Amino acid sequence: MKKYYLILLIFFIGCNRQNEETHVSRRSKDSLNLYLSLANEYKLPVEIKKKYTRKAFEVIMSQPEDSLKRVNLFKVANRYFNMRDWNEYNKTVKIILEKAQKANDSVSMSKAYTYLGDYYSSQAISDSAFLYYFKAEKIYTDSNSFYNLAKTRLSKALLQFNEGDFYGSEKAVFNALRVIKGKNNNDILYEAYNLLGVIYNELGDYEKAIEFHNKAIASIDNNLIPAEFQSKATSLNNIGFVYQNLNDYKKANFYFKKGLEEKNLYNQKPELYAILLDNLAYSRFKLNQNEELPDLFYKALKIRDSLQLTAGITASKMHLSEYYAVKKDTAKAIHYSNQALLVSKRTKNFRNVLVALKQLSLIQPEKASKYSEDYIHLNDSLQKAERKMGDKFTRIEYETNEIKNENSSLEIQNRTLVYVFSIFSLIVLFFYIYKTQQAKNRELLFKQQQQVANEDIYNLMISQQNAIETMRIREKKKVAQDLHDGVLGRMFGVRISLDSLDKLDEETANDKRKKYLLELKEIEQDIREISHDLNKEKSGLMNNFVAILEKLFQNQTNTFNTKLIYNIDSNIKWDLVSNVVKINLYRIIQEALQNVNKYAQAKTINVEFKNEINYLAVLISDDGVGFNTHKTKKGIGLQNIVYRTAECNGNVEIHSAKGEGTSIVIKIPIDQKINKIHNES
């Protein structure tokens, strides 16, 4: 019968960090160092070491919350791990993880995840162990911590191996080696080669198994791997086990014996010493070298019992069962096989259960069918469980990656939303600036148009003044000439003739007087005609403001499709309307037309100037969409109309409704003499 148990070396080395400045007293520091040192002293009993570990923990918990505190807590966890006090180990690591998460310390978090993976692995809770290893792996990958990444992948590989996922374990080991390729990390190389040797041994590729175990021995560096780990003895044991599987017990015996010769093996690694001793006894048993048997088996079993190594206890009892079966001591053979079966079932080590069932079927042929049935049933279940666990590992990786991808996808989506929002904001800002600039340009253009119009009106005023002045001078000359050449000469002749009437008799004088009066009437008519000609020419000059208005109306008609109907009362005496009123009237008409063009969507616009009693009235109306005068806030255009009307001391009424167009009525008070002149004429 072949032995199933073998040892794997997993290092548990605490982080070495330079001490940071703290407020802990020198005495506390010395005490802590002493407690930690004593807790790690292998010669002391376990209970004493636990006592010192608790004291160290109490000192550390009184320290300030900083990275040094977390480093020291990891040292406490290491002590509990070495003593296999799993409950205290688990509690300590969870305290570290909580503190690391609060401090956002990714280094301590990743290390705590690895420690928790080791805890769940020790408790045979493989899925939880794999999950924590995977969490640590992700942090180490993101931080490019290659050494720790490789160590974590090796821990995953060992977990997969223990669950029977040999190919998954092999892949994980090579992933670890790939990370440290070209780097001087012989401790990692040793672990990787050692595990590959064990994997290939299980896969039945014994040649490769021996090759990698030899590579592991060649990679041992005493400067990197502490001597107390007994790396060489471990590899010698594993090579011997491969030769056992090859049924080459002579070579196996050589390597087990050579491993036992390693210095301080029993003191530093008693569990490894027990394995080598048991394997040596089994090889000698197969070689029929029974001189020290079964004492070597019992010696190994005693050590394993003292260390409570259940898997090792099972292996020793299975070897004793096989030994006594060959010696025909069936009772002892059955006794040790049953004990091995009970321990294996209690610890749920189903592989050892299979070995025990197989051994019992050989010892008790009468019950072989029952044991074989149980064996087949359990073996099928174990294979399914191993496949299921392998699938579970794959699923954990997939689901964890999915969560990460979802988070990454969410980050990408959020980043995309930010980009889209930023671009949208820039576009809105661009259009806002564009519209603002456009509005400013329109306002500037409008001001320029106003300036041109003001200049036109100003020029009109100046031209009116110049025309009036020129007309006055010309009229003065003409009147003077007409009066001098015509009227005055004729009046002078009539006056001389009237003076001569005193010399005539009454009858003759009366006839002459009638004749002279008739001539005076003709002179009066001539003076009236001169006066009418003067007024007519003056009126033509004063009508230039109407021409400016007509020019504005013509521009409106040429530019827009809206029909424009206008009427200017000819009875308005524009020469008696002040320049301020004229300018404001022009602006009001201009503003009103602009509002209609922009908002009203009208088909027809009506503009009318009327001369009413005491008022100059302006009516502006359209048949456009209209607006609610109570709800709609007056725009700048309407405000300008109101303001300009107020400047003329007038009033304005604005009437509008949705769908009913708009009308504006403006009344500006005028001098009463305008109407008087109108009535007199």
From TrEMBL:
> Which InterPro entries does the record cross-reference, listed alphabetically?
HATPase_C_sf, HATPase_dom, His_kinase_dom, Sensor_HK_TwoCompSys, TPR-like_helical_dom_sf, TPR_rpt
Q: Where is the Histidine kinase domain?
A: 585-672
Q: Which residues form a coiled coil?
A: 506-533
Matching Gene3D superfamilies, A to Z? Histidine kinase-like ATPase, C-terminal domain, Tetratricopeptide repeat domain
EC number(s) in its UniProt entry?
Answer: 2.7.13.3
Q: Which UniProt keywords apply?
A: Coiled coil, Kinase, Membrane, TPR repeat, Transferase, Transmembrane, Transmembrane helix, Two-component regulatory system
User: What residue intervals traverse the membrane?
Assistant: 416-434
TPR repeat start and end residues: 190-223
The record's SUPFAM superfamilies line, in alphabetical order, gives: ATPase domain of HSP90 chaperone/DNA topoisomerase II/histidine kinase (SSF55874), TPR-like (SSF48452)
- Protein name as catalogued: histidine kinase
The record ties this protein, via Pfam families, to: HATPase_c (PF02518), TPR_12 (PF13424)
Q: Which domain of life is it from?
A: Bacteria
Which catalysed reactions does the entry list for this protein? ATP + protein L-histidine = ADP + protein N-phospho-L-histidine
Q: What class of enzyme is it?
A: transferase
